[in-house]
Amino acid sequence: MPNPAREPTFLPLTVSAAGDADDAGAVAVRDRAESADRAAADCWLSLVAGCTSGRQTLIKRLHDLSEATSSYAGMRWWLGHGSVHRRRVADAEHRIDDAVREGDGAEFAEAFIGYDQAVATVVVHVQNRLGKLST
Fold first, then answer.
1. d(Cα 48, Cα 103) in Å, to the nearest integer?
2. Alpha-carbon dihedral sign for residues 19, 25, 29, 34
3. Is 41 exposed, middle or buried (0-12, 13-18, 19+ CB in 10 A)?
4. What are the tens digits of pLDDT across the range 69-117?
5. Which residues are within 8 A (CB) of 123 and not within 5 positions of it... i.e. 6 or more apart?
6. Dihedral Cα 107, 111, 112, 116, nearest 10 deg
7. Cβ pair 67, 93 in contact under 8 A
8. Considering all CA atoms of the chain, what is the largest pairwise distance in Å, rounded to the nearest integer?
9. CA distance 108 to 47
10. Given 3-state DSSP classes, what are the helix, strand and coil percentages for the chain, each rounded to the nearest 5?
11. pTM score
């Protein structure tokens, strides 16, 4: 039985940021983040083993998470004031895809840091906007 403390995690900030909220949008982001995190761990193991499996699943899960994040943020904000965040999320998502295609583990890990920070920033911004952060 795997030890959860030893499992790789790729989206700790996002899971944590969405984890405390109880509204439907945050729950959707958290669920998608957990799914993407599992896919990232599987893909990471494939990269380390020199395999190429898991790429399509990971890209789909990342896209699902990005979509849930945009829905949570609200399309008006996402396309307007949040466009900088939207670009950061999209750029990091593309960077992960490139790293997987190239089999570059270091780039994969680095790109995930950027993706996690970008998505978590949006989640925190939305919660702050909605007054859901504890003070």
1. 9
2. positive
3. middle
4. 999 999 999 999 999 999 999 999 999 999 999 999 999 999 999 999 9
5. 14, 17, 18, 21, 26, 29, 69, 72
6. 160
7. no
8. 47
9. 9
10. 80, 0, 20
11. 0.90
